[in-house]
Amino acid sequence: MTNGATNLAQDTKVDAVAELRDLDWPACLNARDLGGLPTAGGGRIREQALIRSDRLSRLTDDGVEAVRQLRPSRIVDLRTAAQCEREPSPFAAADMYCHVPLSIPIDPPNRQARLVDRYRSKLGLYSHRFVQAVAAVADAPPGPVVVHCQAGKDRTGLVIALILKAVGVPDDAVAVDYAASAARLGAYYTAKRADIKDVELLELVRELHSARADTMASTLSYLRDEFGGGQSYLRRGGLVGRQLEALRSRLVVRSQPSSTRARA
């Protein structure tokens, strides 16, 4: 299969997965249910257990009501304090709201040109923050959990990838889910780039706005090479066995053996 055919097949797969799990939360652009993704041993992620999204401050009144109808037990907001102040979450006063910023003002700027290098740097430098975010999901009361940042692509993408790897979702499925953000955010990012005239800056911003499966695949390879995988990364950062088991219990639906289904 040629590279063009491979990319076309991948894009088709991404679009199909994203369409099946897309959530109608007016006016969020990038909200979807992770339910249905496969896990090791023939299981799958439970529907309405883990939701990823862009900022909930976008929501219309109908959108807020749609989230309330889901009855989430926890909403994990990964945005900076400044972003939360500029665009407050409509759920900020609720007990279910949990703010876990992945960036703070004293962090040095990251000017690397490739998005994957920025991901690797952030994972390498701030494992304790990623573990805190994953722990907020693991320790949540029973019920759906929503994880979001500003666009629902980068910070959310990394936290969701760590959670999915911790419960046995294969790399290709994690990468396909990550890449689904490209279609959801395409028009929004195109509009944001419309006034950029500098060619080099435009190229950089286009890279930072991207959501390619190969970017996530390379990030997962980094986690394996440097830390022994996503689960080992989380353990080294302080996540304990009880929390890993809690993630599996709340997220994974085990498939019945074929003999059991036949008897039923």
Descriptive account of the structure:
There is one protein chain. This protein is an alpha/beta fold and 264 residues long. It has one domain (3-254): Protein-Tyrosine Phosphatase, Chain A (Alpha-Beta Complex), CATH 3.90.190.10. It is built from 13 helices and 7 strands. The protein has a 5-stranded mixed β-sheet with strand order 1-3-6-4-5, with helices on one face. Strands 2-7 form a two-stranded antiparallel sheet. The model is unreliable at 1-12 and 258-264 (pLDDT under 50).
Keywords:
264 residues; single chain; disordered N terminus; Protein-Tyrosine Phosphatase, Chain A; five-stranded mixed β-sheet; two-stranded antiparallel sheet; disordered C terminus; alpha/beta; 7 strands
Q: What does the secondary structure layout of this molecule look like, with pairings?
A:
Layout: H1 3-21, E1 32-33, E2 44-45, E3 50-53, H2 61-70, E4 74-77, H3 81-86, E5 97-99, H4 115-125, H5 127-138, E6 145-148, H6 155-166, H7 171-179, H8 181-192, H9 199-208, H10 213-227, H11 230-236, H12 241-251, E7 252-253, H13 258-263
Parallel strand pairs: 3-6, 4-5, 4-6
Antiparallel strand pairs: 1-3, 2-7
Family: Belongs to the protein-tyrosine phosphatase family.
Protein name: Tyrosine-protein phosphatase
InterPro entries: Prot-tyrosine_phosphatase-like (IPR029021), PTP_cat (IPR000242), Tyr/Ser_Pase_IphP-type (IPR026893), Tyr_Pase_AS (IPR016130), Tyr_Pase_dom (IPR000387)
